[in-house]
Amino acid sequence: MKGTTNIRTTIAVTLTAAASIALAGCAPAQTDDADTLTIVASTDVYGDIAASIAGDRATVTSIITGTAQDPHSYEATARDQLALSRADLIIENGGGFDPFIDTLLAGLDSSAPVLTATEISGLFDEDDHGDADDHGNTDRHGDTDGHEGHDHSDGVNEHVWYSFEAMGALAAEIAHSLEEIDPEGADEYAANYAEFSGEIDGLLERAHEIGAAHAGAAVAVTEAAPLLLFNEIGLVNKTPAEFSTAVENGTDVAPAVLLQMRSLIEAGEVALLAYNEQTSGVETEQLVSLARDSDVAVVAIAETIPDGLNYVSWMDENLDNIEAALG
């Protein structure tokens, strides 16, 4: 992912010290209502899904919200660590996407369960956990080992919120965890999960309908974020692997690779170009402009939920945009 950086040790030490002062007079996991649980999620994607399952029985805090903030470059604060210290349940993406969660947790004595979406997704082989991703990042089960790891071109990448099955699996795990923490709310959690699961089924049905109408359509992406959704629909990614890897790593694209990408668009060999509106650079902006000039549809995607939407309505909107582009 472009611009991804782990929080430097000096920042982590500063945060830990600042948070220790802030926490001095506070007991963890306290809320105004003793019967209300506290859930902390790294982004509003997971916060929204958690709120759908927890209902009124939990207060949910999402550290990163809206599309104005680039999650890759987010630097956590003492307030974030304070929120984590009070959490009854913590939800992170993992896979190097939100390493600040583990950095902050390392400075806390928290016993709250931590749900890691990449692990729960079922998209990674057992051996994948702990391996570095394309950006030299890892989740909390392994060490950094350079710019090697998951090949995003095969549809297995850390942007697991674009997999409806993965989010269904995460919702089930959230419900299970909440039932263990709060047995009295088990029936409500089960009912809320059943409702959310039905909405996930609806998204899957829509994706398959679009795929049936446009099976095998070629697409290009500026980075790997939407590929899990494109795979679900049945679209074929024609992006040179070297291009999306360079963009996500924040390195320069080789001139020959950029020329190859431009040729795909100018020749009309792809039905649409998808780009991440939260992490655009000169090269991606040039390609977006070229696509529009070449009458290739452009679809903007994001890594957090746009204002005014929830997870399901956001994904519905993404499907609308993809269907319109293909049509």
UniProtKB/TrEMBL annotation:
Subcellular location field: Cell envelope
GO cellular component: cell envelope
Pfam families recorded: ZnuA (PF01297)
Entry annotated with the keyword DNA repair: no
Position of the signal peptide: 1-24
Highest rank taxon of the organism: Bacteria
InterPro entries: AdhesinB (IPR006129), Bact_metal-bind_prot9 (IPR050492), Lipoprotein_PsaA-like (IPR006128), ZnuA-like (IPR006127)
Biased composition (Basic and acidic residues): 132-154
Keywords annotated in UniProt: Metal-binding, Signal, Transport
Principal location: other
GO-annotated molecular function: metal ion binding
Region (Disordered): 125-154
GO biological process: cell adhesion; metal ion transport
Assigned protein family: Belongs to the bacterial solute-binding protein 9 family.
Protein name: ABC transporter substrate-binding protein
Species this chain originates from: Homoserinimonas hongtaonis
